[in-house]
Specification:
Blueprint (H helix, E strand, L loop, with lengths): L5 H14 L12 H8 L3 H13 L3 E4 L5 E4 L8 H9 L24 H16 L3 H4 L10 H5 L1
Antiparallel strand pairs: 1-2
Helix pairs in contact: 1-3, 1-4, 2-3
């Protein structure tokens, strides 16, 4: 099964929270402690992820009193592919796609590599087409209760 690891999932939750909602987004600085409280992601994971995302240029670190982290660019300019690549490395379904595995004795004669490349490119394109802004939680539309409808 193709699945993002838990830390990448946490990062998308955290970044979505930073991008929207009360007390976040719009370049506002958020501490790791506040992020952990707001999202339920364990504090050690939040701290580790914020450092990695800062190193990757997705977050900006702010030192001193009132310090923390903020998004480095607008949520619409950060893609899910950016986040996945920052935390998991290049998107590659098989090790021969990214050139990391040269030990496969079948590589010179492999008839599957073109197909794997096509599948990999489709996944890459799909992840690149979804921005952090699109991942932000949306408020549920107001639905009146039966009592309110009866009035």
């Amino acid at each position: 099964m193709i699945r993002l690891n838990k830390m990448t999932d946490y990062a998308i939750v955290m970044l979505s929270h930073m991008a929207g909602g009360e007390g976040s987004g719009d370049g506002k600085v958020m501490t790791a402690v506040r992020m952990a409280q707001d999202t339920g992601v364990p504090l050690p994971s939040v701290s580790k992820l914020m450092k990695q995302l800062s190193k990757a240029g997705i977050l900006t670190s702010h030192r001193g009193a009132g310090g923390g982290y903020s998004l480095d660019r607008a949520a619409g300019q950060v893609t899910v592919a950016d986040i996945v690549t920052a935390l998991e490395g290049p998107i590659a379904l098989t090790s021969c796609i990214d050139g990391a595995d040269t030990s496969c004795g079948s590589m010179p004669l492999c008839s599957l590599s073109g197909n794997w490349n096509q599948v990999n490119k489709a996944i890459q394109t799909a992840l690149e087409s979804v921005s952090l802004a699109e991942m932000m939680p949306r408020p549920f539309p107001f639905e009146p209760t039966p009592e309110e409808l009866a009035k």
